[in-house]
Amino acid sequence: MRILAVAAGEIFGGVERHLIGTAQIRGADVSFALFHDAGLATSLRDEGCEPHILPLSHAYDPRAPQRLAEIIRDIAPDVIHVHGYRAMVTVDLIRPRLSIPIIKTEHGLPEPPSGARFEQFKTRLNTWLDNRATRSASAVCYVTDDIRRRFKIAHAGVAQHTVHNGIAPMEPQAFHRPDDIPAAGPVFALVGRLSSVKGLDIALAALAHPAMPASATFLVIGTGPLEDSLIRESRQAGLEDRMRFLGFKTNVYDYLAHVDGLLMPSLHEGLPYTLLEAMSFGKPTLGSRVGGIEEVLSDGENGILYDVGDVGAVASACARIAEDPGLARRLGENAARMQRERYTLETMKNAYDKIYAEVSAHS
């Protein structure tokens, strides 16, 4: 079955990791149409897949739908698999010319409107256009049951499925320990875009909490709109040596493979690839009871969970890992076993194949 995946490819996050995994597991059976020739395009080329780059001089470039229609005509895919609002709206513009099933995957919730009034208007407009276009799809897939429930009304009338993300197993000994990881622990990684939803302000407050081990260090890997303010706040609190902002790292796996745990004090999450990667490495994750974190982890079995915004609980969770190596090892081993049993590329591929077959049979 020939699949055409359509996505923005602008930044590098969960969607992009999903598509790289798709390329790895499907090989020549999948093609890609992207709006940006950026990090995802480079990674796909490394996998031996040359993506089609759509024209995009601005967010609503009218040439993109026509170029996408030409790509679809040349490839003649059996299914079009869409990721993201821009891709969904563009595909919907040419949908009347298509007789091909359209699948969309929702990887998370839209960020709440922020900034100037015009920017808020654009965010709301894009969300409305996205939901409207999505209702024309043959099926919608969600990476967690939580996201599926949240979109139930917005996507009413469309077949809805949960398909969890998956990765290939990863072994920590295959990755080099970076020199900037402190020799003394505990060391926890916080990985992702530095935005309000990641709860980094909660992590900063937890680092100053009395229950936090005095030797604990947080390595913050990523960039985003809150980076400057968080760096400033950590300096003002005298914590700049213990909360270290490393910026974007292409070798993030080197860090995940050698820290003592992954810290995720998020306000919301889909099913983060960073979580699955930490699990595969056998590292305990300390996360909020939200979204995919709560859906995947069981407190005290393969991770540690705490309520959103509970600074003291975050500090206590870090202390438990620091004080009980046996607990940390058991949590990590259980997490690694679960990843290899439930969250693999093969499991993800098989779930999508079943949905592809169903929508194709009814097209």
CATH class (first level) name of the largest domain:
Alpha Beta
CATH superfamily of the largest domain: Glycogen Phosphorylase B
Q: What can be said about the biggest beta sheet? A: 7 strands, parallel
Poorly predicted ranges: none
| Structural class computed from helices and strand pairing | alpha/beta
Secondary-structure element pattern, one letter each? EHEHEHEHEHEHEEHEHEHEHEHEHHH
Integer average pLDDT: 94
Extended strand count: 13
What level of helicity do the residues show? 40-55%
Q: Biggest sheet, strands in spatial order? A: 3-2-1-4-5-6-7
- The rounded Rg comes to 21 Å
Shape, per Cα inertia axes: globular
Specify the CATH architecture of the largest domain: 3-Layer(aba) Sandwich
Range of strand content: 15-25%
CATH topology of the largest domain: Rossmann fold
Any idea how many domains? Answer: 2
Q: What gap, in angstroms, lies between the N and C termini?
A: 14 Å
How large is the count of helical segments? 14
Concise summary:
42% of the residues lie in helices and 15% in strands.
Features:
Rossmann fold, six-stranded parallel sheet, 14 helices, 363 residues, 13 strands, single chain, seven-stranded parallel sheet, alpha/beta
